[in-house]
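Quick bug: Undecaprenyl-diphosphatase output formatted oddly.
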Amino acid sequence: MSDSLLSILLGIIQGLTEFLPISSSAHLLFPNLIFGTNDLGLSFDIAVHFGTLIAVIFYFKEDISLMLQSLATRNSTFPREKKLFGLLVVATIPIVLVGFGVSDILEQRLFNTFTIALSNIVFAILLLLVFLQRKENLRLVDLTFKAALIIGIFQCFALIPGASRSGTAITGAILIGLTLKDSAKFAFLLSIPTILGALVFLISDINEISLNYSTMIIGFFTSMLFAFFTIKYFLAFVDKIGMIPFVVYRLILGVVLLALL
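Here's what came back:
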């Protein structure tokens, strides 16, 4: 498989799986397991992550604009937006602290296909249990800082490859009683500082001399396009489809990965 075709494939995978509760790390294993493809390098990872970041920022540009306006004024013109910004900050703190604490372990890359498949199955079952016991008695405007902290703690499990950042955040949000749509929206907004932090971490670790700009550009635009429409349609239909299809898919995915070992 050519690098250009691989960059399209990986860009699609990253764009689709970054925001769905199905684990991007598990899906990114398939090109290598099936086709024996090469690693396009850390610079390509940065490009596709940047693509998904731009997509989520563009989709929520109005919410972000109002939050920034709320910070620029001292009066209570935007009380909900100011509170939402604070909630996102609180929910981001746990993964920042834990990420720095376990950074040395993460750099050792101790996880493999088996552990990714296993964590994919475990966190799919956790999502199922929480979803089946859901109450959905809170809206985003009702979210407290304590509840945001709980969601942030759940998001820390995303540091385990195969857990799914979106999946863990949505699991925490459903657990504290948020509606499915608001759980997804908060998880997507929470991805902005999280992905930004991951980009800083990746950039600080880059040591490549030669950069393949063509694959980076292809990966960036592909991941951005697919991420945008993933966010759009997931938020539009999450109330109707629920979490069961994603749980079933992840269980099958985990079993398939184990079978390919």
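Actually, after a second look the formatting is fine. The chain has one domain: 3-259. Closing.
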